[in-house]
Design brief:
heterodimer, A: 157 residues, alpha+beta, Ubiquitin-like (UB roll), DNA polymerase, domain 1, 5 helices, B: 665 residues, alpha/beta, Aldehyde Oxidoreductase, domain 4, 3 domains, 7-stranded mixed β-sheet, 5-stranded mixed β-sheet, 28% helix, flat
């Protein structure tokens, strides 16, 4: 397969030169220095590596970069491009919905995608929608609260 | 840094050094290690620069417990500086004073008052300066929001510090203001670097890079303890850009990118000498008893078992090492930067000041990052290859080659009078540890013993240490005793609890939970548990449901009453309490390391279940704020009550007494 030479990331075109079988996670982190996207398990179990691909929450550790060439990729670095926080980011701060913060970028992008699908989710819909994300510090109740709060403030992507 | 070098490095300003004579008293001598980096007796120090930036240097680290924020509050409270002007320099062995480690919930009881004292001394220096400069009576000065003023005159801290080179050393025993008068401490200051977390800007150790850096992979044996017989590295060495490091049993490959390094590790041909494992996850409890030290227990005790579990910090161990001449600098996520420095010094035969360890705010630890495994690996490969080297552990490596919370066998017996007074108590802990071993209840005849044993797995610290195991068994057995005399579990505990602080949390949790008004229905159960550890008192009530078909347990509601003296930051304390319940649920219900033949079979998240959103109960916390008591650490103790509360609730639901952790094995 041909090498991937360009990715659309955070609204811009980025030149790369990557084997199409490499993971999107690796290309983002190691080639583009977008380290806000986290490695947590490498097997799609923790969702710390979540990015948006055409608005859909996607585990970048299981996604080959060849499969997303030409698609719109948004990482945590692209969520507040003008420096103004996205409503979901602000809601996470307001609800103190983090401790170590390592899961936070993936959580936030997962929440943005969830609110894109379901603008006013019930608690059960949040739990189901976010259940793939692991927070070892156990801030789950606060994340639920943050998503509820963001839902009222245009939390969609 | 030498004392005389402070201003050369920092520019002008004011410096407060905190002479840590309490530490010397506790340990019988000056601080260990030190070298010439920072004066050995200093506990913390604070600098006010000419720009008004206040920098506080402490060897503590931030691993999610929000020490960076609580220590900032300590500075703001005493110095009256705006929070944004305060920078905490943490966990850098060249810049910060020696520290034993961010362990044992000691940051709040030990470091927090020290930093308040340093900040209070700095405040007094600023007032002295202003009084002198303006030739006014010191008593007429006001200090607030980063400024000192006298009538119409006003100067910022930076303006006052400008051109000064003034150092003051103060004893760490200076008295402090009463908690009742706090203005910033005791309030919910938001996480000071939260913005960097929600934007992805914060660089964890896993994220760091240096120019020309190589990525390393280490070849681990197929079994714990297996030794290398032979190695054929020719296929790896033939790969472009790949270097192989082979020193005795240590084999690593390095490449310009992590994927090439992983591929190169995959083509190493190694032969290992196998070992015969002495125990597996089924036989280990007998093994503990067989290899135990200490006096024998009485006959007819009731045994409980505790599985080994993993910390699973979401950021696996990671380190970046770089040598400059004979000095190595390592960035790594560790709770003990000075401990890692010692490990490096020992491994490479260098003086401690030739190793610098820098700890970026870390993707959690929970007691699992006390040592420098990744740091040593990165430094070793970097030394061999003469380039900066990154060593990021995979999840599988983290869940195999880190250390585990110890498994244990605990045996217990007790006697109780017909009116519910415990008269005898015998309690033996094999291997899991001595923390929280002693019953907080008033019992006339007690025998409590920790027995060291051999461990088939590498083991170490964990949030709350063995207090979780010891509380699980003690509080489960308390219910067994209550049942034997037909007493309500709450009533039974109150009969035997004489410590007022213990009684307070039990009553507070039961009241909030509605214990006395609880309505028993089929498939539902209620449990209560209480305890004391690391200066904090906790009581936990749980409501659970048991699926009649599968026996699966769902925790519906948990109420936690917690008292840790004067509360430093209520919102962050609640966050810690909730997090402890969430984490504790895993060890209580389903987390268990399975192993055999020197291998871990549960070394991936697909095979090792940790709590998720859907596992969460409704969590309610009741904080008993005792402004008359010294603040204790709070990251650990709230975890100890949830497992026994759930176990007791299961018994309440279906009459089954489960005497093992995890309960749902």
């Amino acid at each position: 397969m041909a090498r991937v030479t360009e990715l659309s990331v955070n609204g811009g075109r980025r030149r790369i030169d990557a084997d199409p079988d490499r993971t999107l996670l690796s290309v983002l982190r190691d080639d583009l220095d977008l380290t806000g996207t986290k490695y947590g398990c490498g097997e799609g179990q923790c969702a710390a590596c979540t990015v948006l691909v055409d608005g859909v929450a996607t585990k970048s550790c299981l996604t080959k970069v060849g499969a997303v060439a030409g698609k719109r990729i948004v990482t945590i670095e692209g969520l507040a491009p003008e420096g103004k926080l996205h409503p979901v980011q602000q809601a996470f701060l307001d609800a103190d919905a983090m401790q170590c913060g390592y899961c936070t970028p993936g959580m936030i992008l997962g929440a943005v995608a969830l609110l894109g699908r379901t603008p006013n989710p019930t608690e059960a819909e949040i739990v189901t929608g976010m259940n793939g994300h692991i927070c070892r510090c156990g801030t789950y109740p606060r994340v639920v609260r943050a998503i509820h709060a963001a839902a009222g403030k245009g939390g969609r992507a | 840094m030498k004392r005389r070098d402070f201003f050369a490095v920092l520019g002008g300003g004011l410096v407060v050094l905190l002479d840590d004579e309490i530490y010397a008293q506790e340990t019988g001598g000056p601080r260990r290690g030190g070298g010439t980096a920072v004066p050995v007796e200093i506990g913390a120090w604070l600098h006010i620069g000419e720009s008004g930036v206040v920098t506080v240097y402490t060897g503590k680290v931030e691993v999610g417990q929000n020490a960076r924020t609580s220590l900032t509050q300590a500075v703001v409270e005493e110095l009256h500086a705006p929070p944004a002007s305060v920078h905490m320099a943490m966990g850098d062995t060249d810049l910060t004073p020696f520290d034993m480690g961010t362990v044992g919930s000691m940051t709040t009881p030990r470091m927090w008052p020290q930093i308040r004292r340093a900040a209070a001394a700095a405040r007094e220096m600023l007032l002295d300066l202003a009084a002198q400069k303006w030739s006014v009576d010191r008593a007429t000065l006001a200090i607030a929001d980063g400024k000192v003023s006298a009538g119409a005159r006003s100067a910022s801290f930076g303006e006052l510090a400008r051109g000064e080179k003034w150092t003051r050393t103060i004893p760490s025993s200076v008295p402090l203001a009463e908690a009742a008068a706090w203005k910033v401490a005791g309030k919910s200051l938001p996480k000071v670097n939260g913005h960097a977390m929600v934007t992805g800007a914060h660089k964890y150790s896993y994220d760091l890079s240096r120019p020309g850096m190589l990525h390393a992979k280490v070849l681990y044996p197929p079994q714990f303890g297996a030794t290398l017989i032979s190695l054929d590295a020719s296929a790896a060495e033939a790969m472009p850009g790949v270097k192989v490091v082979h020193e005795g049993n240590f084999v690593a490959v390095a490449a310009p990118d992590p994927e090439t390094a992983a591929k190169a590790a995959g083509v190493l041909q190694a032969q290992w000498k196998p070992v015969t494992a002495e125990a597996d996850s089924h036989t280990v409890f007998q093994y503990f008893k067989q290899t135990a030290q200490g006096a024998a227990a009485s006959a007819n005790l009731t045994p409980y078992t505790i599985a080994y579990i993993a910390h699973v910090p979401l950021e696996p161990r990671a380190a970046l090492a770089e040598w400059e001449g004979d000095k190595v600098t390592v960035w790594t996520g560790s709770q003990r930067p000075f401990g890692v420095r010692s490990e490096l010094a020992q491994a490479f035969g260098i003086p401690e000041e030739k190793a610098r360890v820098i700890v970026p705010d870390t993707g959690s630890g929970y007691g699992g990052k006390h040592n420098g495994d990744a740091a040593l690996e990165a430094a070793r490969v970097s030394k061999a290859l003469g380039k900066p080297v990154k060593r990021n552990w995979t999840r599988e490596e983290e869940m195999t080659w880190a250390y585990f919370r110890p498994g244990g066998l605990i045996e217990v017996a007790g006697k109780v009078s017909p009116d519910g007074v415990i008269t005898e108590w015998e309690f033996h802990n094999y291997n899991s540890g001595g923390s929280g071993l002693q019953s907080p209840y008033s019992i006339p005849g007690k025998k409590e013993q920790f027995h060291q044993t051999k461990s088939p797995l590498r083991q170490g610290s964990y949030r709350g240490l063995a207090a979780t195991a010891n509380h699980f068994v003690r509080e489960s057995y308390m219910d067994e005793l209550a049942q034997s005399v037909k007493l309500d579990p709450l009533e039974f505990r109150l009969i035997n609890a004489k410590d007022e602080r213990l009684r307070n949390v039990i009553v507070a949790a039961a009241d909030k939970f509605g214990w006395k008004a609880r309505q028993k229905t089929a498939g539902r159960g209620f449990g209560i548990a209480a305890g004391f550890e690391k200066g904090g008192y906790v009581a936990t009530c749980a409501e659970i449901s048991v699926d009649p078909g599968t026996g699966a347990v769902k925790v519906l509601r948990a109420v936690v009453a917690f008292e840790c003296g004067a509360v430093v930051n209520p919102e962050h304390l609640r966050n810690q309490v909730e997090g402890a319940i969430a984490m504790g649920l895993g060890g209580a219900l389903f987390e268990e390391i399975q192993f055999g033949e020197g291998k871990i079979s549960t070394n991936r998240l697909a095979r090792y279940r940790v709590p998720r959103f859907a596992d969460m109960p409704v969590i309610e916390s009741v904080l008993l704020d005792r402004k008359d008591l010294v603040s204790a650490g709070a990251g650990e103790t709230p975890i100890v009550g949830i497992a026994p509360a759930i176990g007791n609730a299961i018994f309440d639901a279906n009459g089954k007494r489960i005497r093992r952790l995890p309960l749902m094995a």
